[in-house]
From TrEMBL:
Residues 9-154 form the Niban 1/2/3 domain. The lineage of its organism: Eukaryota, Metazoa, Chordata, Craniata, Vertebrata. This is NIBAN protein. The gene is Fam129a. InterPro entries: Niban-like, Niban_1/2/3_dom. It holds the Pfam family Niban2. Belongs to the Niban family.
């Protein structure tokens, strides 16, 4: 009871006025990283579509979709996504001194973990939605892949 009033006053005067600007600064790199995940998924599926349109090979299509399923664990391809979030290091240094924010690496790592989870969910959903269509007419497969990709990106 004796701490409540001073703590409330401290939060109201020293933290609350800065929350909006802090969130805006944090969301820039985070949003950029998640947009990079979206862009990578889009690019990879477009490559599958283009390859299928060139070859019309259902076996190769299955291999490409199987390879897409490993995308979240491909550190080389996911690296550009992770690098966007590394910009948090700079933003959080200022917060560290002003508000005693520690464990900056933990915040970055958790954000990167969420990015990997998002990609896992995207490729899994893609595979689940596309799987029944693999037996479809090969002339419609590229269109189906595009529709599934757009559905996943929503």
């Amino acid at each position: 009871a004796s701490v409540s009033e001073p703590a409330q006053k401290c939060c109201t005067e020293n933290i609350q006025p800065f929350l909006t600007s802090i969130l805006e600064e944090l969301m820039g790199p985070i949003s950029s990283g998640f947009m990079e995940v979206r862009s990578l998924f889009d690019k990879e599926v477009n490559e599958i579509i283009q390859d299928f349109q060139k070859t019309n090979d259902m076996t190769r299509l299955k291999e490409n979709v199987d390879q897409l399923m490993t995308l979240p664990f491909n550190s080389v391809k996911m690296e550009p996504c992770y690098l966007k979030v590394n910009l948090l290091q700079e933003f959080l240094q200022d917060l560290k001194t002003r508000f005693k924010v520690y464990h900056i690496d933990f915040v970055i790592q958790r954000t990167q973990n969420f990015m990997q989870e998002l990609m896992e969910n995207a490729v899994y959903t893609f595979e689940q939605l596309f799987s029944p269509s693999r037996q479809a007419d090969s002339a419609k497969v590229a269109t189906t892949i595009e529709k599934v990709k757009l559905r996943v990106l929503k």
